[in-house]
Amino acid sequence: MERERERDPKRPGRRDREREAEKPDDGIKTKLVQVNRVTKVVKGGRNMRFSALVVAGDKNGSVGIGMGKAAEVPEAIKKAEQAARRAMVKIALSEITIPHETYGKFRKSLVMLKPASEGRGVIAGGSVRAVVELAGIRNITTKSYGSRNAINTVKATFDGLKGLRSPEKVAALRGKTVEEL
Fold first, then answer.
1. Is the distance from CB of 83 to CB of 51 less than 8 angstroms?
2. CATH class of 91-169
């Protein structure tokens, strides 16, 4: 009396869970910054969903941010992690800090990023700290102006980091050598 079951494509079986757990380690770390409960009022009542903001980075100059929405928190986090991995960009670092002062702006949030000397550490608020630590920056001073909304400050920090240029890149743009600068 063998019974064949039809698999529900929305519910993973044990084999799928085992395969998911055996993912190779690619060296990318993720950090959950914020989870929001979003409510949509419809004719039959309220629809609850969750949105997650995740930062991913290899602590070696690559960082990305992603957002995900789903009916359940773990699913929203998973979607946000995948989006963050896809959005990763390489940023210019000078060993353990950033090469120059920069500002990042997103809507009404403004984040100032300043290089710091060895041993100073990461001086940053919670959401900005997540981005700079996963980027591999170990000495930096930051200040957040305007809106302190976590989503906006993370995006402003990401904007500031994308605007960094290494001395080699600046020299190449000016047609000079690094020593001439």
1. no
2. alpha beta
